[in-house]
Amino acid sequence: MFLKDTVIPDNPAKTDEEYVTPNIITGGNPEPYDSGNIVLSARDKAKLDHLANYLITSAILTIFPFYFLYLPLLLINLAIINKIKRLAKFSPHESYYLNKIKKYWRIMCWPLYIIGVAFIILLLLLAVYGL
Question: Is residue 2 domain-resident?
Fold first, then answer.
């Protein structure tokens, strides 16, 4: 019935306490509410959609016509991203809104690449021409 390697303790009642741990959940802060029971109102849903659309539109506009507003809009949009994440928790389509945030970051990274390449070219020109 038992394998050769199986060790049976002399007094199982005393050794059970060594192997059984209490049901304690550790790690992370407990949420004060269950997001599964809360449903977004129509007003909050409209606000969430508006914020998600604004986020993408502002990212597109900062690339070409309003490039000088890149940094201020980036700082403002960080607060908007936080608000979208908080509201999206209560939406059944949370992944849709999180994908909108990912799309925003994909759009916003291109100007950073352009700035980085321009900076490297500037450093190379300074090194070559000794300006």
Answer: no
The count of other CB atoms within 10 Å of the CB of residue 52 is: 23
**Residue range 27-40: mean pLDDT, rounded:** 56
Write the CA distances from 30 to 27, 33, 67, 79, 88, integer angstroms: 9, 9, 42, 23, 18
Name the token pair of 60: 């597109």
Question: Which residue range is the domain that position 110 belongs to?
Answer: 39-117
pLDDT at 77: 92
* Residue 88 maps to a domain: yes
Place of tokens 């199986």: 6
Give tens-digit pLDDT for 86-97: 999 988 888 999
Structure tokens at 104: 């925003």
Give yes or no for a contact between 70 and 113, defined as CB atoms under 8 angstroms apart: no
Domain assignment of residue 102, yes or no: yes
Question: How many residues would you count in the chain?
Answer: 131
Task: Look at the chain and report how many structural domains it folds into.
Answer: 1
